[in-house]
Amino acid sequence: MQTLINRLMTALVALAMAAGVQAAEIALLDQNYVLFNSTAAQEATAALKQEFAEEEQQVQTLEQSIRQLQSKAKTDADIMTDEEKTQLQSDLQQKARNREQLVRQLQQVQNERRSAFIRQHQPLMAKAIEQAVDKDQFDIIIDKQAVIYHRNSLDITEAVLAEFNKLYETQQEESGN
């Protein structure tokens, strides 16, 4: 839905320009790129990896155990009793369930943290965009993902990323982090 709205807005801007309306200064911006390639995102990602390193190791251990059991099932199938095969299959299923549950939990936490990160840094993003608009006097900023073709000269993503990082560093210094 948001993409449709973005495309309609892009079409309206193009139509207005074609109709002889005063040319507007237009820029393109990829907000997701700015947010998730920022210093803040790198720090948050490092903290998240450190916080959940043990769980990630558990996932890897379970995956290795599953591979070993699968290998054993293939190589020893001819010499195993039906009871051993049943037990092996049961162990495999249990480990696979444990792995899936752990992966789901990690993904849920990651999604929650991603949403919290966006909420926390949205005001800083708005300020970085505002400063870019004030500096270069843009009339319209369009989501880069909603545009089919553009000249690179219209893209202000890297400039906004630099401004975002500068504002973030200032914010961190002021808060003593």
TrEMBL record:
GO biological process: protein stabilization
SMART domains the record matches: OmpH (SM00935)
Top-level division of the source organism's lineage: Bacteria
Keywords assigned by UniProt, alphabetized: Coiled coil, Signal
Family to which the UniProt record says this protein belongs: Belongs to the Skp family.
Organism from which the protein derives: Saccharospirillum salsuginis
One Gene Ontology molecular-function label: unfolded protein binding
Leader sequence residues: 1-23
Entry's Gene Ontology cellular component terms: cytosol
Descriptive protein name: Periplasmic chaperone for outer membrane proteins Skp
Coiled-coil annotated residue ranges, if any: 45-119
A Pfam entry, by short name: OmpH
PANTHER family documented for this protein: CHAPERONE PROTEIN SKP
UniProt keyword Signal, yes or no: yes
InterPro entries, per the entry: Chaperone_Skp, Skp_dom_sf
